[in-house]
Sequence to fold (228 residues):
Amino acid sequence: AQTVTQSQPEMSVQEAETVTLSCTYDTSESNYYLFWYKQPPSRQMILVIRQEAYKQQNATENRFSVNFQKAAKSFSLKISDSQLGDTAMYFCAFMNGGTASKLTFGTGTRLQVTL
Amino acid sequence: EPEVTQTPSHQVTQMGQEVILRCVPISNHLYFYWYRQILGQKVEFLVSFYNNEISEKSEIFDDQFSVERPDGSNFTLKIRSTKLEDSAMYFCASSGRTGFGQFFGPGTRLTVL
Fold:
């Protein structure tokens, strides 16, 4: 079974600064996908970024980028130029490459962006 | 932009009652999911549904749970006899392609008294 570990329960960053959230995972699969989801106080789950395991290039979406280290099974999220609206819970998630595969989530990191 | 919708947003029920949570996935999506999140905890997988049948279910998804896609648009989760521990946020999600990402609805907060 796959496991996803987020070792930082809470983090804080000042507005306009950069912050990195850590995630490690464990799997014996070779074909899989990794995701970061954001959950603001409204509790809506919002897809932030995705990474395909077979792609070496790190995914980027505007101010969000990942550092995918396949050998180390590490998938960290970097948020640049942090904004107050980035305050949320962030969940790392793993998905096998099969049909209708489930997401396996980590326990989340609560990020607070301060003035 | 298309989105997943869920109704109701909040449901309060008595222990032992049946509840049906409703979802309308994004229209051209093929894969459908239910997850739940107990307050303060991580999101847990319940069931996946594809081609009009269950693809996978978790240990949580016991005989008290069932899913249905009664028509071309709705996707429902039924809990036959609710327990106190079923109190949670229930999320529906859908996906168009494997690995493309699952898109979540806003959730239904279920409170069992």
Observations:
- The first strand of chain B starts at residue 5 and ends at 7.
